Amino acid sequence: MPSWQFHSPPPATWQRCDSGILPMWWDRLCAQTGQQSAALYAAGLFTDDRRRPIAQWFNAAFNAALLVAPETSPEWPVQRFGIFYAPPASGFVRVYSAPHEWHPREPRKYPTEQDAFQAAIAEAERFLQVEMDFV
C-alpha cells in the first residue's frame, strides 16, 4: 500500500464536531451564491440538516471547516458523499475527489453506505494533512 494511503489523524488544530452542521456553511454559501441557490445546493443539505451521516472538522484558529456529507437527493438511485471545504476566513468550495458512492436499493452490495462514508472520511483527513502545509 502506498504511503499516501495510510490513515493518519487530522492535525490537532482540526477538531471533529459531528453533532450538527455548522452555521458557517450556510453563511458562506449564501455569501457566494445567494440564498435561493444556497437552498438548493447539494439537495438542500445546508437548509435542512436532516441527512446523516456527516463528519465535520472545525479549525477555530483559522475559522475554517471541512465537511463530509451526502450531496445527492435521497430519491436518486446512486447516492454520493461529497467533501466540502470552508477555507480560512471566507469562501466555500467542493473538494473534488474519488466518487464515494453507494446504491441504496442494494444495501448489502459493496460498497455499502458505511464503506462509502469511511472512504470519504479517510480522503477528507488526507486533505486536511495537505491543507495544513499551505495554511
What features would you describe in this structure?
- By secondary structure, this protein is an alpha+beta fold.
- It is built from 4 helices and 5 strands.
- The chain has helices spanning 23-33, 35-40, 45-48, 113-131; strands spanning 15-16, 55-59, 64-70, 79-86, 93-102.
- Strands 1-2-3-4-5 form a 5-stranded antiparallel β-sheet.
- Strand 4 and strand 5 (93-102) form a beta hairpin.
- The longest helix is centred in the last third of the chain and has 19 residues, at 113-131.
- The mean pLDDT is 86.
**What is the succession of H and E elements?**
EHHHEEEEH
Outline: globular
Give the termini separation. 28 Å
Lateral strand order in the biggest sheet: 1-2-3-4-5
Strand content: 15-25%
Q: What's the main sheet like?
A: 5 strands, antiparallel
Low-pLDDT ranges: none
What is the radius of gyration?
15 Å
Q: What is the structural class?
A: alpha+beta
Could you give the count of β-strands?
5
Helix content: 25-40%
Number of separate helices: 4
Overall mean pLDDT? 86
